């Protein structure tokens, strides 16, 4: 089983990318062309790395930013012969497609493929859903024609957040309503205050039972019998006479 990692390329990978291109494709580029892609669109340059750290495949892509709408373009795709038929090219292309949409909002991706390259044409048309857009005569340096193909990306639907129910605003009372409410509140406050004062007054006076006042008037004070002076004062007040001594009682 082949262990391969698909990752974003770094500047240290450019020499190995160029070497893979020389081994796989007749269309070759100078090192500065790879560096231009890396500096301009680093998100779109990916490599396939085996367990030994060797680059066994790559995809070189860019954005056609001057076009309307802006879209991506595959400049070069290559996988070493001993690593083919393992889905590496498909994964490299899918990774480039995803980053085009995420980073640049591309709506589709375009590429060119040789008229006689049936393996690449099958990959693009059957596996990756590319469609023939045009045929460009003499596109390659050796005069061979090329299929101009496009893959339209599905529109990403944003999740709609559920609308939060908002309570209707409370009605604003008019001036007349506000005055009426204030008068009602004042009346209620006055009634509560009167009730509180009445309850305090009732609690301050001790409750009396029938006969209590008479009992208190006749009962002698603690510590002795009724004094003669108190008795004489009562008799004097009744008869209108002077004081009467203790012997006359």
Q: What topology, given as strand order, has the largest sheet? A: 1-2-3-4-5-7-6
Shape: elongated
- Rg over CA atoms: 54 Å
Give the number of DSSP strands: 7
Query: Roughly what percent helix?
Result: 25-40%
Low-confidence blocks of residues: 211-249
On the 0 to 100 scale, the average pLDDT is 80
Which structural class should the secondary elements be placed in? alpha+beta
Characterise this structure:
It is built from 7 helices and 7 strands. The chain has helices at 14-24, 31-40, 88-104, 118-127, 175-204, 212-218, 228-239, and strands spanning 4-8, 45-50, 55-64, 71-79, 108-114, 131-136, 146-152. The model is unreliable at 211-249 (pLDDT under 50). It has 249 residues and is of the alpha+beta class. It is 39% helix and 20% strand. Helix 3 (88-104) links the parallel strand 4 (71-79) and strand 5 (108-114). Strands 1-2-3-4-5-7-6 form a 7-stranded mixed β-sheet, sandwiched between helices.
